[in-house]
From TrEMBL:
Matches recorded under Pfam families: Amino_oxidase
Cross-referenced PANTHER family: AMINE OXIDASE (PTHR42923:SF46), PROTOPORPHYRINOGEN OXIDASE (PTHR42923)
InterPro entries reported in the protein's UniProt record: Amino_oxidase, FAD/NAD-bd_sf, Zeta_carotene_desat/Oxidored
GO molecular function, one term: oxidoreductase activity
Protein name per UniProt: Zeta-carotene desaturase
Sequence intervals crossing the membrane: none
């Protein structure tokens, strides 16, 4: 049986891995020249790796880690010390370090030691966030009608902890502010954070997400007979009288015939190729409820080290929300002799919220980033900036705003030979690499079950 998959991000690649392993004939069509979607990395003219975004693997990403193992990339990521590190002005840092105890004591003791929270913040947090720690999926779903800020205040948790601790988490998770993001994903994270020590540890890819994950996935799929086409943009579907797909047409006129078709496109791209005949199904009109979150990733190459932190960092009051010196966290790339790197820091910074940056010239953005870098990393004031890059993504992951979760579609559509994968489709994670991997697994399992 032949399956055509459109979109080679983590979701499309995961679906392909799952299907080639079950003996399906798989063809994967990607509109860009590079695979990986929002995790893609490419080399520029200097030989430097340019990332679509700084990516972290969490301990709780069981499915993604299973795929990494399956494609022989199980050693391609490195665990870091289990702590949240906040970069403060003048090079100071504050920490939320988990104590080496079983959950929830790891978090309670760690929280009580956090230097940037007052005793009142700590008490209000333990008291206020308790329903999240004790809650189940049903409770989390019932809180989707309000923003996280509303939930936090309703619980009587302190304003300082909202601004200091949770704002950074909201920006890191979905690139939007706590007064915009739904309470649901945030309190789901608290549950993991507060009850499962392993789930919230971070790992970085040894090189970068492209070379350490996407490339091994590509090799695995092709080694099992899967065919991958780049520069191959899905343009539209041609339908049979009964509304199922006869064939797919690419931009260059190429026709794709298959027994089943999977869209692993981001939801905003999928909306553009939906046949109007399908819009009689609420399943498809519901997709118009999703909006993409704008985000940008900035990389800076310095002539010397401006930090020695081997971990993810957060900050607040800066143009960047989460960031790392990838010359330290990723020892297989960004090292002296690789492209522009000369042994100095290579900062990879996620800029969020980013709606105001989308139309701003890159030079202006770099000036703003550098101002904040100088403020947070005093050693950078003497350093020379060798090079900078910016990647803007106007519609990245869907905005997890209140009342949107219920529109996340199942992978099985009302059209018999058409399926959806993608981080926005229904699975237990928010839009993330794990969510995309889970959607790939689920779509393959459901397609297989429907055909047998
Ligand atoms: C800056 C940034 C940082 C992030 N950090 C993290 C992190 O630390 N941890 C984490 O877990 N997640 C992170 N994410 C989220 C994660 O990258 C995404 O949730 C995940 O990669 C989405 O995968 P996907 O396959 O669903 O979609 P995508 O990656 O968007 O893949 C969709 C693919 O479809 C292709 N396509 C689109 N239209 C067509 C068409 N017409 N024809 C053919 N192909 C088409 C696209 O080119 C793309 O390759 C981050 C995202 C960004 C932007």
């Amino acid at each position: 049986m032949k399956v055509a998959i459109f979109g080679a991000g983590v979701a499309g690649l995961s679906a392909a891995i799952e299907l080639v392993d079950r003996g399906y004939e798989v063809e994967l069509y990607e509109k860009r020249k590079v695979l990986g979607g929002k995790v893609s990395v490419w080399k520029d003219q200097d030989g430097d790796s340019v990332e679509s975004g700084l990516h972290i693997v969490f301990g709780g990403y069981e499915q993604l880690q299973a795929y990494l193992d399956r494609v022989g990339a199980g050693n391609n990521y490195l665990w870091k010390e289990h702590s949240l590190i906040y970069a403060e002005p003048e090079g100071k840092q504050s920490y939320f370090k988990k104590a080496n105890l079983p959950s929830p004591w790891a978090e309670v003791v760690g929280g009580l030691q956090a230097s940037f929270l007052s005793m009142w913040d700590k008490i209000s947090l333990i008291k206020g966030l308790y329903p999240a720690l004790a809650g189940n999926e049903e409770y989390f779903r019932s809180q989707d009608h309000m923003t996280y800020s509303e939930w936090h205040r309703l619980r009587g948790a302190s304003e300082n902890s909202l601004q200091k601790l949770w704002r950074a988490i909201a920006l890191a998770m979905n690139f939007i502010e706590p007064n915009v993001i739904s309470a649901r994903p945030m309190i789901t994270i608290f549950k993991y954070f507060g009850t499962d020590y392993e789930a919230t540890k971070f790992a970085f890819f040894r090189e970068n997400p492209g070379d350490s994950m996407i490339e091994p996935m590509r090799q695995y799929i092709q080694s099992k007979g899967g065919r991958i086409f780049i520069d191959a943009r899905l343009s539209r579907f041609e339908l049979k009288e009964n509304g199922t797909i006869r064939k797919a047409l690419l931009n260059d006129g190429h026709e794709v015939e298959a027994d089943a078709f999977i869209s692993a496109l981001p939801v905003h791209n999928l909306k553009k190729v939906l046949p109007k005949e399908w819009l009689t199904h609420q399943y498809f009109t519901d997709l118009f409820q999703f909006q993409g979150s704008p985000v940008a990733n900035c990389q800076l190459w310095f002539d010397r080290k401006i930090t020695d932190t081997d971990n993810l960092m957060f900050s607040q009051g800066t143009i960047f929300a989460t960031f790392a010196d990838v010359s330290i966290t990723c020892p297989g790339d960004f090292q002296k002799g690789q492209g522009t790197a000369n042994g100095g820091s290579v900062m990879s910074l996620v800029l969020a919220p980013a709606h105001q940056l989308m139309d701003m010239p890159n030079d202006t953005i770099i000036k703003m980033v550098m101002k904040d870098i100088h403020e947070r990393f005093p050693k950078s004031r003497q350093a020379k900036l060798l090079k900078s890059t910016i990647v803007k993504i106007p519609e990245s992951v869907y905005k997890a705003v209140p009342d949107v979760d219920k529109y996340r579609p199942d992978q099985v559509t009302p059209v018999d030979n058409f399926y959806l994968a993608g981080d926005y489709t229904y699975q237990r994670y928010l839009a993330s690499m794990e969510g995309a991997a889970l959607s790939g697994k689920q779509v393959a399992e459901k397609l297989h079950a429907r055909q047998h």
